Amino acid sequence: MVACAKKAGAFIRKERESFSYSKVEIKGLNDMVSYVDKTAEQMIVADLQNIFPEAGFIVEENTRSERRDYNWIVDPLDGTTNFVHGMRAIAVSIALEHHNRIIAGVVYEVANDECFCAAKGSGAFLNGNPIHVSQRKTLSESLIATGFPIYNFERLNNYLGALSYFMQHTHGLRRLGSAATDLCYVACGRMDAYFEYNLQPWDVAGGGIVLQEAGGTICDFSGGDNWIFGKELSATNGHLHEEFNSVVRNYFKTA
């Protein structure tokens, strides 16, 4: 999985040197794709079929779509908007799912050549070195990651309320534009918590298990475990689980 992610990442890195905005296709409001996403996904799918031919696929660009007992969940380029605008936060995300549980995941952050990986019960790693979540225990000393809504604004007021609270009670908020990267940054202690809605399984599956294996916690906004397919996610270093999630639940309870 690591080799597969790095291979696709090398292709993406090469293409971004000469990529033109004229090659962007519009899928929907603020939802873009290009030949880079599609080609990277085709490369990944072909390699994963060789690794585990019996597995199905849940992929962003629909180059292959079939659900089985085990499923590869793939985002070939998480942060497409960043990519087309020349921003650095872009990642390849690959995960293996079994019965709604992620059992292995890889997130390769392309521009920084950082590869995060984890397997269930085996810990989390960054470029081969073990990683762990931060030890910060209160929101007042924490840095929070999030992602802004780009097309579904039905919960915008709930979101703005939560933002207002976190702005006033933490060290600050960061919006990188890649959910996979956000989760991995919480996993290695660069961030302390993260929340977002309008998410897809390929956005969160790879980074989710990296965070869990690094000692973090993940849930949906109600505190349940429907974070892979539930389109919303709240993640912490574990120490902040109750304090952080109580705030998220409070602001999204009427959503």
Low-confidence parts, pLDDT < 50 over ≥5 residues? none
Biggest beta-sheet profile: 7 strands, mixed
Distance between the termini: 37 Å
CATH C-level class of the largest domain is: Alpha Beta
* Oligomerization state: single chain
CATH superfamily annotation of the largest domain: Fructose-1,6-Bisphosphatase, subunit A, domain 1
Q: What is the radius of gyration?
A: 17 Å
Structural class: alpha+beta
Shape: globular
Any idea of the CATH topology of the largest domain? Fructose-1,6-Bisphosphatase, Chain A, domain 1
Short synopsis of the structure:
The chain has 255 residues and is an alpha+beta fold.
Structural notes for this entry:
By secondary structure, the protein is α+β, with helices and mostly antiparallel strands. The chain has two domains: 129 residues, Fructose-1,6-Bisphosphatase, subunit A, domain 1 (Fructose-1,6-Bisphosphatase, Chain A, domain 1, 2-Layer Sandwich); 114 residues, D-Maltodextrin-Binding Protein, domain 2 (3-Layer(aba) Sandwich), CATH 3.40.190.80. The chain is 33% helix and 27% strand. The strands form three sheets. Strands 3-4-5-6-7-8-9 form a seven-stranded mixed beta sheet, with helices on both faces. A five-stranded mixed beta sheet has the order 11-10-12-14-13, sandwiched between helices. The radius of gyration is 17 Å and the shape is globular. The mean pLDDT is 94.
